[in-house]
Protein backbone atom coordinates (compact mmCIF):
# COMPACT_ATOMS: atom_id res chain seq x y z
CA UNK A 1 0.00 0.00 0.00
CA UNK A 2 1.37 3.41 -0.93
CA UNK A 3 1.94 5.99 1.76
CA UNK A 4 -0.82 8.50 2.41
CA UNK A 5 -0.08 12.01 1.20
CA UNK A 6 -0.53 14.16 4.33
CA UNK A 7 -1.58 17.20 2.31
CA UNK A 8 -4.53 15.31 0.84
CA UNK A 9 -5.70 13.69 4.03
CA UNK A 10 -7.83 10.60 4.42
CA UNK A 11 -11.47 9.60 4.41
CA UNK A 12 -11.90 7.13 7.25
CA UNK A 13 -14.72 4.78 6.28
CA UNK A 14 -16.13 2.36 8.86
CA UNK A 15 -18.26 0.08 6.75
CA UNK A 16 -19.88 -3.24 5.99
CA UNK A 17 -19.59 -5.40 2.88
CA UNK A 18 -21.49 -2.84 0.78
CA UNK A 19 -18.24 -0.86 0.85
CA UNK A 20 -16.13 -3.54 -0.83
CA UNK A 21 -18.50 -5.87 -2.75
CA UNK A 22 -19.18 -5.24 -6.42
CA UNK A 23 -21.48 -6.94 -8.94
CA UNK A 24 -19.60 -10.25 -8.78
CA UNK A 25 -18.19 -10.37 -5.27
CA UNK A 26 -15.66 -8.79 -2.90
CA UNK A 27 -12.75 -6.63 -4.06
CA UNK A 28 -9.52 -5.32 -2.52
CA UNK A 29 -10.09 -2.00 -0.82
CA UNK A 30 -8.07 -0.11 -3.45
CA UNK A 31 -10.49 -1.00 -6.29
CA UNK A 32 -11.17 2.43 -7.80
CA UNK A 33 -14.83 1.69 -8.60
CA UNK A 34 -15.84 1.04 -4.98
CA UNK A 35 -17.89 3.92 -3.61
CA UNK A 36 -15.41 4.91 -0.85
CA UNK A 37 -12.72 5.43 -3.48
CA UNK A 38 -15.10 7.26 -5.82
CA UNK A 39 -15.96 9.61 -2.94
CA UNK A 40 -12.34 10.09 -1.90
CA UNK A 41 -11.20 10.85 -5.45
CA UNK A 42 -13.87 13.53 -5.87
CA UNK A 43 -13.16 14.93 -2.39
CA UNK A 44 -9.42 15.08 -3.07
CA UNK A 45 -8.44 12.56 -0.41
CA UNK A 46 -7.28 8.99 0.01
CA UNK A 47 -9.31 6.18 1.57
CA UNK A 48 -8.80 4.26 4.79
CA UNK A 49 -11.46 1.54 4.63
CA UNK A 50 -12.02 -0.50 7.76
CA UNK A 51 -14.90 -2.86 7.09
CA UNK A 52 -16.08 -6.44 7.35
CA UNK A 53 -18.64 -8.86 6.00
CA UNK A 54 -21.93 -8.43 7.85
CA UNK A 55 -20.64 -5.62 10.04
CA UNK A 56 -23.23 -3.77 12.08
CA UNK A 57 -22.94 -0.47 13.94
CA UNK A 58 -21.65 -2.46 16.91
CA UNK A 59 -18.75 -3.77 14.82
CA UNK A 60 -17.89 -0.21 13.78
CA UNK A 61 -17.70 0.78 17.45
CA UNK A 62 -15.49 -2.20 18.20
CA UNK A 63 -13.21 -1.24 15.30
CA UNK A 64 -12.99 2.37 16.44
CA UNK A 65 -12.02 1.36 19.96
CA UNK A 66 -9.93 -1.76 19.27
CA UNK A 67 -8.35 -1.46 15.83
CA UNK A 68 -5.02 0.43 15.83
CA UNK A 69 -5.56 1.34 12.16
CA UNK A 70 -8.36 3.65 13.30
CA UNK A 71 -6.12 5.28 15.88
CA UNK A 72 -3.40 5.83 13.28
CA UNK A 73 -5.85 7.22 10.71
CA UNK A 74 -7.70 9.74 12.89
CA UNK A 75 -4.92 12.36 13.16
CA UNK A 76 -4.69 12.67 9.35
CA UNK A 77 -8.39 12.16 8.61
CA UNK A 78 -10.39 14.89 6.85
CA UNK A 79 -13.78 13.24 7.43
CA UNK A 80 -15.31 10.08 8.87
CA UNK A 81 -18.08 8.10 7.20
CA UNK A 82 -20.11 5.77 9.43
CA UNK A 83 -21.19 3.48 6.58
CA UNK A 84 -22.89 0.90 8.78
CA UNK A 85 -26.46 0.15 9.79
CA UNK A 86 -27.67 -1.68 6.69
CA UNK A 87 -26.76 -5.18 7.89
CA UNK A 88 -28.37 -4.40 11.24
CA UNK A 89 -31.77 -4.49 9.52
CA UNK A 90 -31.44 -7.96 7.95
CA UNK A 91 -33.59 -10.79 9.32
CA UNK A 92 -31.68 -13.07 11.67
CA UNK A 93 -33.83 -16.07 12.67
CA UNK A 94 -30.94 -17.39 14.73
CA UNK A 95 -29.63 -14.98 17.40
CA UNK A 96 -26.55 -13.18 16.14
CA UNK A 97 -24.24 -14.67 18.78
CA UNK A 98 -25.20 -18.23 17.79
CA UNK A 99 -25.07 -17.50 14.06
CA UNK A 100 -21.59 -16.02 14.31
CA UNK A 101 -20.43 -18.87 16.55
CA UNK A 102 -20.86 -21.33 13.66
CA UNK A 103 -17.39 -20.41 12.43
CA UNK A 104 -15.88 -21.93 15.56
CA UNK A 105 -17.47 -25.36 15.14
CA UNK A 106 -15.07 -28.28 14.75
CA UNK A 107 -14.37 -30.54 13.00
CA UNK A 108 -14.51 -28.75 9.66
CA UNK A 109 -17.06 -31.15 8.20
CA UNK A 110 -19.51 -30.42 11.02
CA UNK A 111 -19.10 -26.68 10.53
CA UNK A 112 -19.78 -26.96 6.80
CA UNK A 113 -22.89 -29.10 7.33
CA UNK A 114 -24.30 -26.76 9.97
CA UNK A 115 -23.71 -23.69 7.80
CA UNK A 116 -25.21 -25.34 4.72
CA UNK A 117 -28.24 -26.45 6.71
CA UNK A 118 -28.79 -22.98 8.11
CA UNK A 119 -28.50 -21.35 4.68
CA UNK A 120 -31.02 -23.85 3.32
CA UNK A 121 -33.51 -23.21 6.14
CA UNK A 122 -33.02 -19.46 6.48
CA UNK A 123 -35.50 -18.25 3.81
CA UNK A 124 -38.28 -20.42 5.26
CA UNK A 125 -37.48 -19.27 8.80
CA UNK A 126 -37.46 -15.64 7.70
CA UNK A 127 -40.91 -16.00 6.13
CA UNK A 128 -42.26 -17.91 9.12
CA UNK A 129 -41.01 -15.25 11.57
CA UNK A 130 -41.88 -12.34 9.24
CA UNK A 131 -38.32 -11.03 9.22
CA UNK A 132 -37.91 -10.94 12.98
CA UNK A 133 -35.66 -10.65 14.87
CA UNK A 134 -33.14 -8.50 13.02
CA UNK A 135 -29.36 -8.69 13.29
CA UNK A 136 -29.25 -5.62 15.55
CA UNK A 137 -32.31 -3.77 16.91
CA UNK A 138 -32.66 -0.11 15.86
CA UNK A 139 -32.16 1.17 19.40
CA UNK A 140 -28.74 -0.51 19.50
CA UNK A 141 -27.84 0.65 16.00
CA UNK A 142 -28.45 4.22 17.09
CA UNK A 143 -26.65 3.70 20.38
CA UNK A 144 -23.47 2.49 18.67
CA UNK A 145 -23.63 5.16 15.97
CA UNK A 146 -23.82 7.78 18.70
CA UNK A 147 -20.97 6.15 20.63
CA UNK A 148 -18.83 6.40 17.49
CA UNK A 149 -19.82 9.98 16.77
CA UNK A 150 -19.26 11.14 20.35
CA UNK A 151 -15.86 9.46 20.62
CA UNK A 152 -14.69 10.99 17.34
CA UNK A 153 -15.95 14.41 18.43
CA UNK A 154 -14.01 14.08 21.68
CA UNK A 155 -10.81 13.29 19.80
CA UNK A 156 -11.29 15.59 16.80
CA UNK A 157 -14.10 18.11 17.36
CA UNK A 158 -13.19 19.72 14.01
CA UNK A 159 -13.80 16.53 12.04
CA UNK A 160 -16.91 16.19 9.82
CA UNK A 161 -18.82 12.95 10.47
CA UNK A 162 -21.59 11.65 8.22
CA UNK A 163 -23.66 8.47 8.35
CA UNK A 164 -26.11 6.58 6.15
CA UNK A 165 -29.73 5.50 6.16
CA UNK A 166 -29.85 1.67 5.92
CA UNK A 167 -29.88 0.26 2.41
CA UNK A 168 -32.61 -1.95 0.97
CA UNK A 169 -32.22 -5.49 -0.40
CA UNK A 170 -33.84 -7.86 -2.89
CA UNK A 171 -32.15 -10.98 -1.55
CA UNK A 172 -33.69 -14.44 -1.96
CA UNK A 173 -31.48 -15.53 0.94
CA UNK A 174 -33.74 -13.39 3.12
CA UNK A 175 -36.92 -14.38 1.23
CA UNK A 176 -37.21 -10.78 -0.06
CA UNK A 177 -38.38 -9.85 3.45
CA UNK A 178 -37.17 -6.61 5.04
CA UNK A 179 -39.63 -6.02 7.86
CA UNK A 180 -37.12 -4.26 10.11
CA UNK A 181 -36.04 -1.68 7.56
CA UNK A 182 -38.64 1.04 8.14
CA UNK A 183 -38.09 1.16 11.91
CA UNK A 184 -34.33 1.31 11.46
CA UNK A 185 -34.58 4.15 8.94
CA UNK A 186 -36.82 6.11 11.29
CA UNK A 187 -34.44 5.57 14.22
CA UNK A 188 -31.34 6.59 12.27
CA UNK A 189 -33.10 9.60 10.77
CA UNK A 190 -34.18 10.72 14.25
CA UNK A 191 -30.64 10.28 15.59
CA UNK A 192 -29.21 12.25 12.68
CA UNK A 193 -31.60 15.14 13.31
CA UNK A 194 -30.96 15.06 17.05
CA UNK A 195 -27.16 15.12 16.70
CA UNK A 196 -26.98 17.24 13.53
CA UNK A 197 -25.28 14.37 11.69
CA UNK A 198 -25.74 14.54 7.89
CA UNK A 199 -27.13 11.34 6.35
CA UNK A 200 -26.78 9.72 2.93
CA UNK A 201 -30.14 8.38 1.71
CA UNK A 202 -29.03 4.94 0.51
CA UNK A 203 -32.55 3.59 -0.19
CA UNK A 204 -33.25 6.40 -2.65
CA UNK A 205 -29.88 5.96 -4.34
CA UNK A 206 -29.92 2.17 -4.81
CA UNK A 207 -33.56 0.99 -4.80
CA UNK A 208 -34.12 1.43 -8.54
CA UNK A 209 -30.73 -0.12 -9.26
CA UNK A 210 -31.61 -3.27 -7.30
CA UNK A 211 -35.18 -3.43 -8.65
CA UNK A 212 -33.78 -3.38 -12.19
CA UNK A 213 -31.54 -6.34 -11.42
CA UNK A 214 -28.40 -4.28 -11.97
CA UNK A 215 -26.76 -5.25 -8.71
CA UNK A 216 -24.99 -8.35 -7.49
CA UNK A 217 -27.04 -11.53 -8.13
CA UNK A 218 -27.29 -11.97 -4.35
CA UNK A 219 -29.79 -9.07 -4.32
CA UNK A 220 -27.93 -7.41 -1.47
CA UNK A 221 -24.79 -5.87 -2.92
CA UNK A 222 -24.54 -3.34 -5.72
CA UNK A 223 -23.26 -2.99 -9.26
CA UNK A 224 -20.76 -0.36 -10.31
CA UNK A 225 -23.34 2.26 -11.25
CA UNK A 226 -24.73 2.24 -7.71
CA UNK A 227 -21.20 2.51 -6.31
CA UNK A 228 -20.64 5.52 -8.57
CA UNK A 229 -23.93 7.14 -7.52
CA UNK A 230 -23.28 6.59 -3.81
CA UNK A 231 -19.68 7.80 -4.08
CA UNK A 232 -20.71 11.01 -5.83
CA UNK A 233 -23.46 11.64 -3.26
CA UNK A 234 -21.01 11.07 -0.39
CA UNK A 235 -18.45 13.47 -1.88
CA UNK A 236 -21.09 16.16 -2.41
CA UNK A 237 -22.39 15.81 1.15
CA UNK A 238 -18.86 15.87 2.57
CA UNK A 239 -18.06 19.03 0.63
CA UNK A 240 -21.23 20.73 1.86
CA UNK A 241 -20.66 19.54 5.44
CA UNK A 242 -17.02 20.61 5.52
CA UNK A 243 -17.98 24.05 4.21
CA UNK A 244 -20.72 24.40 6.81
CA UNK A 245 -18.41 23.34 9.64
CA UNK A 246 -15.72 25.82 8.54
CA UNK A 247 -18.28 28.62 8.61
CA UNK A 248 -19.39 27.62 12.11
CA UNK A 249 -15.80 27.55 13.36
CA UNK A 250 -15.14 31.01 11.91
CA UNK A 251 -18.23 32.35 13.66
CA UNK A 252 -17.13 30.75 16.93
CA UNK A 253 -13.67 32.28 16.58
CA UNK A 254 -15.00 35.84 16.77
CA UNK A 255 -14.12 37.18 20.21
CA UNK A 256 -12.22 34.01 21.12
CA UNK A 257 -9.51 34.05 23.76
CA UNK A 258 -5.86 34.39 22.70
CA UNK A 259 -4.61 31.07 21.40
CA UNK A 260 -2.06 30.55 24.19
CA UNK A 261 -4.85 30.84 26.77
CA UNK A 262 -7.47 28.89 24.82
CA UNK A 263 -5.09 25.97 24.36
CA UNK A 264 -3.70 25.97 27.90
CA UNK A 265 -3.36 22.45 29.33
CA UNK A 266 -5.76 21.21 31.94
CA UNK A 267 -3.89 20.57 35.19
CA UNK A 268 -6.94 19.53 37.12
CA UNK A 269 -5.86 15.92 37.19
CA UNK A 270 -8.82 14.55 35.19
CA UNK A 271 -8.13 12.06 32.38
CA UNK A 272 -8.09 13.42 28.82
CA UNK A 273 -11.47 13.67 27.10
CA UNK A 274 -10.52 11.21 24.39
CA UNK A 275 -9.42 8.69 26.99
CA UNK A 276 -12.73 8.99 28.77
CA UNK A 277 -14.63 8.57 25.51
CA UNK A 278 -12.76 5.50 24.34
CA UNK A 279 -11.87 3.96 27.65
From TrEMBL:
UniProt-listed InterPro entries: OctT, SGNH_hydro, SGNH_hydro_sf
Name of the protein this chain belongs to: SGNH hydrolase-type esterase domain-containing protein
Domain SGNH hydrolase-type esterase: 13-227
One Pfam family hit: Lipase_GDSL_2
Amino acid sequence: MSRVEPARGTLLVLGDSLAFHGPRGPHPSDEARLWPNVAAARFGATTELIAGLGWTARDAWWALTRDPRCWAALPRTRAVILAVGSMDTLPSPLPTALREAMRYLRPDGLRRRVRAGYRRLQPSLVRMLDGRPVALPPRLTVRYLEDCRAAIAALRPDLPVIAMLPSVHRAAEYALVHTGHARAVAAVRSWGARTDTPLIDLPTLVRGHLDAGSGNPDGLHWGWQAHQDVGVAVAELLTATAGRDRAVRLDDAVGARPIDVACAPDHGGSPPTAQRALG
